[in-house]
Amino acid sequence: MLRRVLGRDLPVVSHGRGALLYDRDGNEYLDAAGGAIVVNVGHGDESVVAAMAAQARRVAFAHGTQFTSDALEAYASDVATVLPLDDAHIYPVSGGSEAIETALKIARAFHLARGDAARHRVVARAGSYHGNTLAALDASGRPALRAPYEPWLGRTHHVPAAYEYRCPLPSHPADCGRRHAELLDETFRALGPETVACFVAEPVVGAALGAVTPPPGYWPAVAEVCRDHGVLLVADEVMTGFGRTGEWFACDHWGVRPDVLVAAKGAASGYWPFGFAACSGHVFRALERGGFTHGFTYSHSVVGAAVAHAVLRRLRDDGLVAAAGARGARLRAGLSDALDGHPWVGDVRGTGLLVAVELVVRPADKTPFPRSERVTERVLARAARRGLLVYPSTGGADGRDGDVLLFGPPFVITDEQVDDVCARTRAALDDVAAGAD
Fold first, then answer.
1. Which of 268, 280, 200 shows the shortest CA–CA distance to 237?
2. What confidence score (pLDDT) does residue 168 get?
3. What is the pLDDT of residue 435?
4. Which of 70, 142, 283, 352 has the least CB density, counted as fewest CB within 10 Å?
5. Contact criterion met (CB below 8 Å) for 158 and 141
6. Which residue stretches of the chain have pLDDT < 50?
7. CA distance 394 to 403
């Protein structure tokens, strides 16, 4: 098998329950990463498993060009009630990269339907991650991920990241949100706004930079710039959606209603490969008129819809979105306390249960460790030895260097387990700082 990770042995997972995972040798791990910031309702949720099995017994696969299904129609109607879109319509796919590809094609098809064939350009942000398929990778602004495939890339235009800890604006911290919106406006004008199809960005940056929340005023100002130029606003909520930030979607923190929204990961909590691109009613009506040339074999999955609907019910019925907000505040405060005074900790930040710790050589001047020292990887290895799973983020400081520990546990994590995450993180950092491998 060509494994996801080459060059090192991995434990064999056995089972999980709540915020805990176990390997075949009986070792227990506190999953502070939710896998890859995926699992929100917890491991081993019987209601989700039951919904999956019940649908699979009836029918597991029906092609989207031949059938719709009760599962798909019911989920589409129900999820529309929590999406920050007007008259939302969803296009279900198998994951985040496919969902981004779908969203970009929706933007192009929308403009074609309106007779704006010149609108083809995509604008995104530096330091972003939107997926690993070619169009999604081209929209992404992470140099290390792009480097092997650069000959195939280069169509997307990037504006600076809204990264307050390392803000590139000379006027920082004065009115950074407004200034970023002005830079976006200048970019549209330089490209020719009549050629720009969409602007795509994460409302809160996930793994690329590590739980980065934009400065005040950023999102309302950016949304206004897009509206002024007729550019579709695409919100990438793959990592931040379905309660991760303490609201149903991160856009909700600012009252922003995008034209297109992309979701995956927490949509099905890892129980099924599932995601979607959702568009507002005015975008959907244009697609109805002009058509939409697109599709995947496993899009519009019947079982996927049943699983996602079970996850949606669990999040809503058990108040797990609010729980993510409360547990996230505890985790952020606990990490700040536990790591206070550690010489490598430059920043503790986050929104809801998406929390990050940025590690630096010197907090005073935010100097990043050289990538060759592999600080993140060493800390993660020590944390795993202590039974703690954390997610890595590297290269965010300058495209090459930079070390961030990212936390995104299941929303069912207990207060005691949150406190344990903080203590084990401090212990792992101390291990590495003392020279342990």
1. 200
2. 87
3. 87
4. 70
5. yes
6. none
7. 5
Long-range contacts of 220-226 (CB under 8 A, 24+ apart): 220/254, 220/255, 220/256, 221/177, 221/178, 221/180, 221/181, 222/180, 222/181, 222/184, 223/256, 223/257, 223/258, 224/181, 225/181, 225/184, 225/185, 225/188, 226/184, 226/199
pLDDT tens digits, 309-348? 999 999 999 999 999 999 999 999 999 999 999 999 999 9
Kindly report, residue by residue over 233-250, the tens digit of the pLDDT. 999 999 999 999 999 999
Q: Which two tokens stand for residue 316?
A: 């809503």
Predicted local distance difference test score (pLDDT) of residue 148: 95
- Which amino acid belongs to residue 91? Y
Burial (0-12, 13-18, 19+ Cβ within 10 Å), 278: buried
Total length of the chain: 437
10 and 3 in contact (C-beta within 8 Å)? yes
Above pLDDT 90, what percent of the chain?
97
User: What tokens were used for 7?
Assistant: 């060059």
Query: Are residues 262 and 233 in contact, defined by beta-carbon separation less than 8 angstroms?
Result: no
According to the model, what pLDDT value does residue 1 have? 85
Q: CA of 131: how far to CAs of 101, 238, 254, in Å? A: 9, 10, 25
